[in-house]
Amino acid sequence: MKGKIILTAFLAGGCFIAQAQEKKAKPEDTEVYTPVPPEVKPGKKCGDAPSDAVVLFDGSNLDQWVMADDKSPAKWNVSKGILTVNKQAGNIETKKSFNNYQLHIEWRVPANITGTGQGRGNSGVFLASIGKGDAGYELQVLDSYNNKTYTNGMAGSIYKQFVPLANPTNKPGEWQAYDVIWTAPVFGSDGKLQSPARVTVLFNGVLVQNNVELKGPTQYIGEAAYRQAHGASPIKLQAHGDKSEPLSFRNIWIREL
Ligand code: MG
């Protein structure tokens, strides 16, 4: 019998006092056998999708994606196992919506990238797409290898909200990886915010966002705030309007939590 407590109650000075006398604790008292975590086969090498992941892009097609604004078939370019932004076509997003998740996504700025600041390899991962255009919560994608810009707009930033804790950007032409743990915001039936969104981001294996609490969806001008209640949302990739050469993505998978 574990943690058996013998209670003795007696009246003293008009009050009941409970005395607890605990049996000597054993290591087994705090061992837990259920629930048993589900078995998951990890990917063969670091970054590969584990067995329970939903693969959003495996290099072959855009079946899991649509154009974000009109939900027509996604018009970005798939070639040789990689997905390249089509800036003229616009943002794409997942057909499926998600609440809390773990996401893996890899991206590459072309080796011959031109431009400066925000106009050099700009894209973004909207961790929840909540409307047309750039409505959502943007994890910035940018060439941040020797490219100066405002620090809350560099790669690994939660755009205009949180500066990354470090800059582990590889040089243009090399692949980069984001591993994201997203906790969606929760709204009550009255539409009021109950708990804000939180996010942790590893950038090339380096922690750049440590469970930060978002102030609201990304706001390009002005302060962010939760102005609109929403539920599960798609993940959106940005076709930024800058003039630099389009970047590419590969190996995108998600695990719902
Ligand atoms: Mg961007």
UniProtKB/TrEMBL annotation:
One Pfam family in the UniProt entry: 3keto-disac_hyd
Q: Which UniProt keywords apply?
A: Signal
Give the 3-keto-alpha-glucoside-1,2-lyase/3-keto-2-hydroxy-glucal hydratase domain ranges.
Answer: 53-255
Signal sequence range = 1-20
Coiled-coil segments on the chain, per record: none
Q: Which domain of life is it from?
A: Bacteria
Q: Which InterPro entries match?
A: AL/BT2_dom
Keyword Lipoprotein set for record: no
Q: What is this protein called?
A: DUF1080 domain-containing protein
**Organism placement in taxonomy:** Bacteria, Pseudomonadati, Bacteroidota, Chitinophagia, Chitinophagales
